[in-house]
Amino acid sequence: MSEITLEQFRSEATDFLNQNATLKAEVSEFVWGEGPDDPALFETVDREQERKELSQAQQWRAKKFDAGFGWITGDPKLGGRGLARAFERAYNELENRYEVPNQSFFGIGLGMVAPTIADHADPEIAADVLPQMYRGDIVGCQLFSEPGAGSDLASLQLKAERDGDEWILTGQKVWTSGAHYSDLGEVIARTDLDLPKHKGLTGFIVDMKAPGVEIVPLRQMTGGANFNEVFFNEVRVLDTHRLGEVNDGWRVALTTLMNERASIGGGSNAGGGFTRLKEMVKHFELDNDPLIRQQMMDIYIRGQVLRMNNQRTMAALKRGELPGPEMSGAKLLLTENMRRTSAFVSSVLGPKLVADSGEWGTFSWAGYVLGMPGMAIAGGSDQVLRNIMGERVLGLPKEPGIDTTSPFKDLTVGTQR
Ligand SMILES: Cc1cc2nc3c(=O)[nH]c(=O)nc-3n(C[C@H](O)[C@H](O)[C@H](O)COP(=O)(O)OP(=O)(O)OC[C@H]3O[C@@H](n4cnc5c(N)ncnc54)[C@H](O)[C@@H]3O)c2cc1C
């Protein structure tokens, strides 16, 4: 039983936020040509600006951690608040009303890596690392994908060889979001070549600044470079930094992947919302075009279905249930509506989408249209999620594969990516 009521907690959090942040201006009615013009799905800031934003984000996390709002559900012995998830949700709802530095730097570390460390790391290491992560002193990234292992993650080849109390990691990862500003990474490596592919893997926590870690940015077609190739050139990792048992890394990876799917599937229809689309159509005097109206309503209805689906999932989580394969469905709904939104803005804007004339609300959509394919791949591609829905929800026969046994049979959330 918590000693503080939700009401008391809300009032304490409101005091903290009032003293340390500014309330967002009342959301005024959307006016075409006014306000931020940024429907892009991935940020395209340069590295210097990114460093500045990261530093502001870290200062904010430290401040809220020190005031007792940075790790609300965490163990009080480690600096957490020991409160139920409802308190965390209440705080997040309140913080949303204030202008605070961009917190997306911590999405992967706190949303996916930290829960895995809590479940699988040596308790002493977890006690050292987790408070630093929640305070924002340490930023985490996820090193799973390789050039030859994405959807079929268990085919990964990065090698870890034991050397006394240490392991030596050699190989390559790819698509590592935020590796360039991360301090710590969760890596899955191959520790036994003779075992079946899901069985010879082991998880580790690596220091991203350790000798032998080489990070090379990958530039996307959106212009930004949010991802990296990461090369491991005989990187030494202490055995105490192992996650789970030797050769039990698949279980460790699944903990992370379950959290990944849940966090992406819970997203909304990004791109500035439906009002923005409606006003675009009015601005270009297409509101009487029957095909444009039909396309627009299709996006609206699908957006509503997604919202209700997410509400249902949130209600299940509040009741303490684990997210099921519906998270795969939620992610599919999200990316399908993004794809339709891309097609819609392309037909409305035409050449304005590809030539930057400086006109508000036109060329800026290129960042959305070019970023959309990445959303349909990250955290499980559309095709892989359809397989999961077919097999786990509809009960269709398993897709023929090269594996003789299914690694997914015991899982609540589909985990093939
Ligand atoms: C925005 C973004 C962020 C990312 N961030 C990270 C990160 O931080 N860390 C990390 O480790 N990785 C990250 N990734 C990598 C991501 O996990 C992989 O891209 C993803 O798992 C797909 O793997 P792949 O790129 O190798 O494609 P592949 O697996 O080679 O797939 C190629 C195509 O084949 C299809 N396909 C594959 N298998 C099947 C099948 N069984 N049935 C039908 N179709 C199939 C796929 O749908 C896809 O269209 C990120 C990717 C993106 C786009």
Entry summary:
With 417 residues, this protein is of the alpha+beta class.
C-alpha end-to-end distance? 39 Å
Strand order of the largest sheet: 3-6-7-10
Number of helical regions: 11
Strand-and-helix sequence, N→C?
HEHHEHHEEEEEEEEHHHHHH
Cα-based radius of gyration, to the nearest Å = 22 Å
The fourth-level CATH homologous superfamily of one domain is: Butyryl-CoA Dehydrogenase, subunit A, domain 3
Task: Quote the average pLDDT.
Answer: 90
What's the β-strand tally?
A: 10
Flag low-confidence runs: 404-415
What share of the residues lie within helices?
A: 40-55%
CATH class of one domain: Mainly Alpha
Would you give the CATH topology of one domain? Butyryl-CoA Dehydrogenase, subunit A, domain 3
Residue fraction in strands: 5-15%
Please state the structural category.
Answer: alpha+beta
The distinct ligands, each listed once, are: flavin-adenine dinucleotide
The CATH architecture assignment of one domain turns out to be Up-down Bundle
Largest sheet: 4 strands, mixed
Shape: globular
